[in-house]
Amino acid sequence: MLRNALARLRAARGARTPEQARGGGMRLVLPASMSATLGCDAVGVPARHGFRLMSHLPRTGCVFADADRWWWIVPASSDLDLDWPEQVTYARDAEVPAGRPRLIHSPDGLTPYTPPIPLFLMVCQVTGVAPSWATTGRASVVSAP
Q: Helix (H, G, I), strand (E, B), or coil: what is residue 108?
């Protein structure tokens, strides 16, 4: 929860991570045929989990990979109220740390996105972390009319 709050604070202030400040980052470029109307963020997972995640997700969007991480494209702000496991790197605007990830999977459709909730749940499962949603201080039930 604290990590999400810090990420939101950095985004609001326009702060950059140390890798980005040194110019060591790069933005993942989607295929020209893809429509990213919801904006793009990327979720980076250790490469050792890549094949397992891809084989168990109901739908996989664009996936980029390098030797260390596999990056799933998700709609912008998919980190809101989700406590991603520590092994995960969440990259706003799909600007990832230094490396040369290349596109290894492109979906048949026109949208580049992997649905973030199934991805979140699968990442939690493969990393052995219980899923956790940040609390907003409001009641979590909907009252009846």
A: coil
The values of phi and psi at residue 55, to 5°, are: -75, -20
> Between vectors from CA 40 to CA 61 and to CA 48, what angle results, nearest 5°?
50
Phi, psi of 62 (to 5 degrees): -70, 135
Nearest to 54 by CA among 95, 11, 107: 107
Write the single-letter amino acid at 72.
W
On the 0-12 / 13-18 / 19+ scale of CB atoms within 10 A, 129 is middle
If one counts every other C-beta atom within 10 angstroms of the C-beta of residue 92, the result is 20
> Which residues make Cβ contacts (< 8 Å) with residue 15, sequence separation at least 6?
9
pLDDT 10s digits, 100-124: 899 999 998 889 999 999 999 999 9
Question: Cα(7)–Cα(106) distance, rounded to whole angstroms?
Answer: 28
Length of the chain: 145
Q: What are the structure tokens assigned to 132, written together? A: 């956790």
Distance of alpha carbon 65 from alpha carbon 140, whole angstroms: 37
Asked whether 33 and 110 are in contact (CB, 8 A), the reply is yes
